[in-house]
Amino acid sequence: MIDSTARIAKNTIIGKNVAIGAYTIIHSGVSIGDNSIIGPFCELGVSCSGMGRHVLKIGKDSIIRSHSVFYKNSIFGKSLSTGHAVIVRENTQSGPGLQVGCNSEIQGHCTFGRFVKMQSNVFIPQGTKLGNFVWIMPGVCFTNDPFPPSNIRKGSSVGDYACVGAGALILPGVHIGTDSLVAAHSCVTRNVAAHSVVAGVPAKRFKNIDEIYLDKEKTIRAYPWRRHFHSKYPAFEIKKMKKK
Length: 244
Prior knowledge:
Elements: E1 7-8, E2 13-14, E3 19-20, E4 25-26, E5 30-32, E6 37-38, E7 43-46, E8 56-58, E9 63-64, E10 69-71, E11 74-76, E12 81-82, E13 87-88, E14 92-94, E15 99-100, E16 105-106, E17 110-112, E18 117-118, E19 123-124, E20 129-130, E21 135-136, E22 141-142, E23 157-158, E24 163-164, E25 169-170, E26 175-176, E27 181-182, E28 187-188, E29 196-199, E30 204-208, H1 235-243
Parallel strand pairs: 1-4, 2-5, 3-6, 4-7, 5-8, 6-9, 7-10, 8-11, 10-13, 11-14, 12-15, 13-16, 14-17, 15-18, 16-19, 17-20, 18-21, 20-23, 21-24, 22-25, 23-26, 24-27, 25-28, 27-29
Antiparallel strand pairs: 29-30
């Protein structure tokens, strides 16, 4: 299941039933879990100066699509899934179920919880921390330099179950609270309280999350979304969601 054109270092650890596509390069210190798929024209385990551990661990049941690049010194839980042309730099750590959309970039030194979902064209700079079950919609840009260009770095953070809408801009050092919603194309310049909806440039709070409904009759609340949306989450995680 390994294409003849792939280049794989001798000390690479490859699990059972792993498929590796054409012209993919896997450097030393890479570990790939069972039942994973690495697409063509990928490069895993790229080195970077100043690293500590020179390893890259990809959990089982993962899929990395074509033209994606992963640097060393990172660990990913099981069921990692990427779109095409994804870049993930060093010192990134994630729980299971991370999803990274096409043409997205993670600049490293980041921490992600369980089942974080990023859609296409997302930019994540160094120092960003995302909690569990966070949704990042297409075109979202996080920033970490408050006085560009400078050597100051202030990473932002997002609490569990929060959702950041398409095209939103998150400024350095901002915290987005648990179960909150950032509306599309908002510019978030200050912390967002838990269970809040913010919108605008600059983003301002205008209602509680539970004031949004899925129907005109206002019988089904849209948020917290975990009460009604469970697509592609494991059964044991769905049970936990329903209890919260």
